[in-house]
Design a protein that fits this description.
Blueprint lengths: L2 H16 L4 E2 L32 E2 L6 E2 H12 L9 H7 L6 H11 L8 H18 L2 E2 L7
Parallel strand pairs: 3-4
Antiparallel strand pairs: 1-2
């Protein structure tokens, strides 16, 4: 698993843990017996959920993961003064990850950085923006001011 995948799992996994989704299974649904000859047809706006076997079906639609809220909570829990909104190093530390130069270089490779990895300041700025954009592209809700 890559570093980006680890970051995504830490953020999106925490969101799933914080907001449990109600599920129903096919085993819990009792079939109804009725005369269906006079049943009206569903309109185009109706939504029908089906199940196969006992696979759970989400009772609520998927919501974007609030990246800022999760990272703010992680910083508060961490106890260090971390500025994840401006620093890739602080963001990784807030998530309990290794923020070493080597890890950041690997993340830069994963996200397609083409600049000089020996210029760590420029790479870090690029990484921070690219990571937030990648999180937004993968279902994360990122504040607009952090995406420009």
């Amino acid at each position: 698993m890559g570093i980006f995948s680890s970051i995504k799992e830490k953020l999106f996994g925490k969101a799933a843990q914080e907001k449990p989704v109600e599920t129903i299974t096919a085993d819990a649904v009792k079939p109804a017996t009725a005369d269906v000859s006079a049943t009206p047809t569903l309109s185009n706006e109706a939504v029908v959920a089906t199940t196969t076997g006992s696979q759970p079906v989400s009772a609520t639609p998927a919501q974007p993961v609030d990246v800022a809220a999760i990272l703010d909570a992680a910083v508060a829990k961490n106890g260090q003064k971390l500025d994840w909104r401006r620093s890739i190093v602080d963001m990784m530390k807030a998530l309990g990850m290794d923020a070493s130069l080597q890890e950041r270089k690997e993340l830069a490779d994963e996200l397609g950085f083409t600049g000089d990895k020996n210029d760590s300041a420029s790479m870090n700025i690029w990484l921070h923006k690219a990571l937030l954009k990648a999180l937004a592209d993968n279902g994360g809700k990122v504040p607009a001011d952090l995406l420009d």
